[in-house]
Amino acid sequence: MRSLMSRCLTLLFALCVAGLPAGTASAATVRVLQVEGIIGPASADFIVGGLTPAEGLAAVVIALDTPGGLDTSMRQIVKAILASKVPVITYVHPEGARAASAGTFILYASHLAAMTPATNLGAASPVAMGGLPGGTKPSAPEDKDAAPTPSLGSDTLARKATNDAIAYIRSLAELRGRDVDFAERAVREAASLSAEAALKAGVIDVLAPNLADLLRQLDGRAVALPGGPHTLATADASIELRTPDWRHQLLALLANPQLAVVLMMIGFYGLFVEFTSPGFGVPGVAGAICLLLALYAFQMLPINWAGVALIALGLMLMVAEVFLPSFGVLGIGGIVAFVLGGLFLLDRELPGMALSLPFLAGTAAAAAGLIFLAGTLLVKSRGRPLASGTPTLLGATGEVTACEAATCWARVHGEQWRVRCAARLVPGMAVRVTAIDGLILSVEPIDFRSPT
To answer: How confident is the prediction for the chain on average, in pLDDT?
Structure first.
């Protein structure tokens, strides 16, 4: 009887849970992903990793503050959002934050979009996302009231990139039911909106001053997931805050093109020092590590490999200036190649990733200064007498320490050497080195002191 009652209670509980609205059982926790700075490989890996193991969560909130970033990283994030099994909410936060360029695409792709007062979004043209070659900017229509024309510039690649971005953000706006006109203007004209204007225009769903108010306003809203309709239950949910760990911070640091150029320079000169002065080991090991890190950073960035080749050529020309009598031609050519390579390395319109001319000029000057200083010291050292090595033994004096049969030993420069002499040698005799044959020294006696 007791067993039958227990089974009935279990069945009743299961039926009650099955009758709950969708999302109620998973309303325990809301994961918050804190994303600040440029959208790149590191931030893409962080967001995708935060969305992938999200079963059992009520929602995932992307607290976003970005000036934009790489097109490839943005599309990777958008794909993860569209495939997410839990609601994804992009929240432009805190006050003063922005979701520009790639951030606008991420916001449009999210199931729900929210902003904090005193924030903005927009300016999503492909130039700011590094999509247009040569820094070509799309031209806006002269008449804003007229229908946009397909002619966006003389560059075919620029038109293709702009039209592709427009079609992409329009598809996201239509999928989420957001304002399509602003989405197109954000790409075509680099238009921007404040938080209040975005709410009135239907670009975002909620205007919330803090995370608690955001979760309260979103409670009970319905969203469409790949598995079907879902109702959010976020009013009493606990918050799981995630920030980038040391691995993502290291990836973000390596994705800085300025650091990549410096690492390349250190690696090149470290290997140069090791090859010219072998045996020490530290410059070679440090140089190899820095060079590999630089190459890893370059493969994460949308770089022009011609720029990398120019930078490497510049470094080699500055080194060649030390050994070849070019009267400064190679050194000046190396500095010019280094600066041009840095300018061609990345799209200068890419937000937060452009290599400025002062940085390149300063780095080239520092590299040239180190090379010229090393060359000056090298030239001065050529005229100095040798201080160590086998040649310094010629003419050196020493003292015979032992003689056994036909083999004699002498102390020269504090070291024991096997010596030979036409005259008879005895311990205590002072000798002078006259020749070197492998590890045997030829000596001649200076005088004879009787052993004590």
So the answer is: 80
* Adjacent-strand bridge partners of 217: none
Three-class HEC string of the chain = CHHHHHHHHHHHHHHHHHCCCCCCCCCCEEEEEEEECCECHHHHHHHHHHHCCCCCCCEEEEEEEECCECHHHHHHHHHHHHCCCCCEEEEECCCCCEEECHHHHHHHHCCEEEECCCCEEECCCCCCCCCCHHHCCCCCCCCCCCCCCCCCCCCHHHHHHHHHHHHHHHHHHHHHCCCHHHHHHHHHCCCEEEHHHHHHHCCCCEECCCHHHHHHHHCCCEEEECCEEEECCCCCCEEEEECCCHHHHHHHHHCCHHHHHHHHHHHHHHHHHHHHCCCCCHHHHHHHHHHHHHHHHHHHCCCCHHHHHHHHHHHHHHHHHHHCCCCCHHHHHHHHHHHHHHHHHCCCCCCCCCCCHHHHHHHHHHHHHHHHHHHHHHHHHHCCCCCCCHHHHCCCEEEEEEEECCEEEEEECCEEEEEECCCCCCCCCEEEEEEEECCEEEEEEEECCCCC
- Tell me the whole-structure pTM to 2 decimals: 0.67
Longest dimension (CA), the chain: 121
> pLDDT-based confidence at 280, cuts 50/70/90?
low
Q: Tell me the pLDDT tens digit for each residue of 349-380.
A: 556 666 777 888 888 888 777 777 766 666 66
Strands across the sheet containing 59-65: 206-207, 112-115, 88-92, 59-65, 29-36, 238-242
CATH architecture of 390-447: Beta Barrel (2.40)
The pLDDT assigned to 148 comes to 47
Q: How far apart are CA 350 and CA 124, in angstroms?
A: 12
Q: What's the topology of domain 19-245?
A: 2-enoyl-CoA Hydratase; Chain A, domain 1 (3.90.226)
Cβ–Cβ < 8 Å for 379, 400: no
Share above pLDDT 90 across residues of the chain, in percent, rounded to a whole number: 31
